[in-house]
Design a protein that fits this description.
Number of helices: 5
Largest sheet: 6 strands, antiparallel
Strand content: 25-35%
Shape: globular
Strand order of the largest sheet: 5-10-6-7-8-9
Distance between the termini: 64 Å
CATH architecture of the largest domain: 2-Layer Sandwich
């Protein structure tokens, strides 16, 4: 699980995670990510949940997904627990969801989990590489970075150069023009 705080306030994200984790586990889930972010309508506590075992078993996003009803149940139980703990000293919005099919890759373990999947990686402006966005298949992960296959070439990327990496959801094959579903002839009596 990755924890983050992008807010100027000093919020104990680990303490928040410690409150929410057992609630998620009671509903068959596990924390994937917890963060406090500033948005146009104020501060938001975002919690991403997956099915229990998803990280260790390196499940696909489809297999790891939990339904929105479970997210709602976790939110209903976690909200009063957070209020009682009183560790967030300001008003905030609370969102419980899933990382989604185009989830952000936040750690080396995330990259390792999704080897073989299509990714889009954006690099920092000061990265030595001239390409600032790479779109390809995640091939390998080592202690320093990742290898992405882009068509017929490979691209090595250091973790320190990655601003953000995401999975890319791929729809099924595009049907050829004029080729709709097969029609079965009607029987005549």
């Amino acid at each position: 699980m990755m924890l983050a705080s992008r807010s100027p306030q000093s919020i104990d994200i680990a303490a928040i995670a410690a409150i929410i984790a057992p609630i998620a586990e009671a509903h068959g889930g596990e924390l994937a990510h917890v963060e406090m972010v500033r948005g146009p309508s104020g501060m938001t506590l975002r919690v991403d949940i997956e099915k229990r075992g998803a990280t260790v078993e390196k499940w696909s996003t489809e297999k790891a997904a939990i339904d929105l009803e479970v997210c709602a149940e976790i939110a209903r139980e976690a909200s009063p627990a957070l209020d009682v703990a009183d560790i967030i000293p300001f008003k905030y919005h609370f969102e419980v969801g899933t990382p989604g099919v185009e989830r952000e890759l936040r750690s080396r373990a995330d990259y390792e989990r999704f080897v073989g999947n299509r990714v889009r990686i954006k690099l920092y402006a000061n990265a030595a590489d001239t390409e600032k966005a790479i779109d390809g298949v995640l091939s390998t992960v080592n202690e320093n970075g990742v290898l992405v296959v882009i068509g017929s070439r490979e691209k090595s990327i250091n973790f320190g150069d990655i601003r953000v990496g995401r999975l890319v959801f791929e729809f099924g094959p595009t049907p050829r023009p004029g080729k709709g579903p097969a029609k079965t002839p009607k029987k005549s009596n």
